[in-house]
Amino acid sequence: MQNRTAYSGADDSVREDLDSRLTVELASVVSAARRRATRDGDRQVDTAHLLHGLLESDPAVRAAFDGGPQVARLLGYLVQRSIGYGLQWLGTVEDSGAVPVVTEGGVPGWSPAAAAAMDGALDRAHARYDTRAGCLDLLAALVDDPESRAVEVLRRASVDTARLAARLDGDRARQD
Q: 99-117: per-residue pLDDT in tens?
């Protein structure tokens, strides 16, 4: 059995395995998150990188929020990450406490919380008997971790995360 959490870009076969389990749109989001982490000088892709990619790339994700002003506020916080907001994260590993801290055998290039969110997205897809996780699956998995950087950004932008989670669960029920 292959490791579901091997998201690093170091091995092309591993990346292809992950990409085969994601929709084209979500694979694009993951690539954007990797590029953003590298460009920002971050050692790992974290949940805020993933949230930023989702908001920029997927209209369905943007539609899950309470309108354009809320999305604009979120993007504003995420863009400020390297010039102000988010500087407290610089050089630190995102560990929300939702999963035990991984010291060895973790997912190279991914924070523990981001790896857990990707697993959650895949689990959500499998629960509806889909072979590929999509962008809304990842958004729901990000919202499920109340201590993640993504949820910190959402709260700072005045997003009611419980309401967002309920809305996403309602979308999931309609898909089943």
A: 444 444 456 789 999 999 9
